[in-house]
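Task: sequence design from structure.
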């Protein structure tokens, strides 16, 4: 596995990089092809944040993204937790998407993945996991042109975790969401 490590507010020692690479290498055993991972190790400088050492890992695999993030008081513990999470997600990805050679594809040629990262193979899918998530509610609403800041206000007024809107600057559908650090995030389509 090829691992690219970057750091934010932390000195990336060779020992830390090697530890992360060794931990992530366990996940490689689930695949014949060589995986490529991007990792970000960061330390929050805010003294009020108890779990200030975060390890994030992202792996792109056949059009899907496997991502994990864990924060603790110790970077090595964060690496352990995120490596375990990535290994579980990759194992689940392989058993659900490639179970008995079944490669379920959506209209765009990619596996159908819901917002929680779960895969829906359609009716009759019986993977090793007995639970198969499905859409249980559908909702339609008018998208209004507004700024990202106005969308954040609307989201807070509604008490939602995310809010879709038409960005009045770009005239494209965007989504704002609450981040774990109490800030907001903006999702925009790539051109």
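Answer:
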């Amino acid at each position: 596995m090829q691992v690219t490590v970057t750091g934010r507010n932390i000195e990336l020692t060779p020992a830390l990089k090697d530890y992360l690479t060794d931990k992530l290498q366990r996940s490689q055993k689930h695949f014949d092809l060589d995986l490529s991972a991007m990792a970000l190790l960061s330390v929050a400088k805010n003294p009020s944040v108890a779990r200030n050492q975060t390890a994030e890992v992202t792996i792109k695999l056949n059009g899907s993204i496997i991502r994990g993030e864990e924060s603790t008081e110790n970077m090595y513990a964060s690496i352990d937790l995120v490596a375990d999470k990535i290994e579980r997600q990759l194992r689940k990805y392989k058993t659900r998407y490639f179970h008995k050679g079944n490669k379920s594809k959506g209209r765009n040629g990619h596996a159908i993945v819901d917002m929680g990262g779960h895969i829906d193979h359609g009716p009759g899918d019986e993977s090793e996991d007995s639970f198969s998530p499905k859409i249980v509610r559908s909702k339609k609403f008018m998208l209004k042109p507004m700024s990202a800041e106005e969308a954040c206000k609307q989201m807070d007024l509604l008490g939602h975790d995310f809010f879709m809107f038409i960005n009045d600057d770009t005239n494209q559908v965007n989504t704002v969401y609450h981040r774990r650090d109490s800030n907001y995030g903006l999702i925009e389509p790539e051109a």
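The two ends are 30 Å apart (CA to CA).
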